[in-house]
Design brief:
alpha/beta, eight-stranded mixed β-sheet, 10 helices, 16 strands
Amino acid sequence: MAVLTMTEDDVLQVLPKVDVFSTVESMFGALGRGEALQPKQVQTLFPGDKGDFINYTGVWMSAGVYGVKTSPFIIQEKGYTVTAWTLLMSTETGKPLLLVDSSRLTLERTAATTAVAVKYLAKADAKRLAVIGTGPQALAHIRYVSGLRKWESIRVWSLNAHELSEERREQFLKAGNGALEFADSKEKALEAADVILLCTSAACPVVSAKDIEGAPLITSISTNAPGAHEIDPAMLASMDVYCDCTEATATVADEMKLAIKDHSWKPEDVKGDLGALVSGKCEKPAYDKLVFFRSIGQGLEDVAVALAVYKEMKGE
């Protein structure tokens, strides 16, 4: 039986034709309506401290698919190797539909998920966007959120922003549609921000309560760094907290685990997730306190984008 297999080069050819944002938003709507299921991710350690792999699974029943993305972290004699492949399966026939290199798709679905959060959680009149980070995720996040509000300013900062090539700087400026500038300091980037996108690989907080003015939306993503978290866990107790999927995230994200352990925060304090937001089943913030959105990457996101590229390749 032949299974469609797509390399990263294949993905890059198809991707411009795929509406990743709408696909991810629709999937979360299905999750909120009970038409999809998101189990927790499962990490398995390799023997002899040789690394690990994480399996991200998900079932999108109303779309007729389920799948698993498997992502190994393989420790080599010098350095390490990280890959990601998604297997898409039919819930009707039980047969495989697609095996796809998910390296680029992971980048896209992560940024698209944050963008869905910005659509539903940012103030309607949000005008000032701050982005901490200048790596691929930061650039992808800007691409996805640039059209969601009428941004008057997009300020970008990172510790190594000065090392960006001229070509890379131009990519950021283009993604910002004329509103983007590189800030001289973190403080300048965060000044009066309505939305703050944290797009770093930090293993410790990059912002604290004293860095923040007002009650902006702060978003944060996961990385491979052990214990990775981008905000001070003590902040959660005074925030309206949302996440991508409550059951799969609230006891897994590292700042949440630390807040449970050290700061009397509880998973039940999560106000809502994207499934509930997109399907209209939870309240939006009152913006009388900081708003925090945390994503860790869900298997359903991988299933959704794999399905989208599969349909594009098949001409459906």
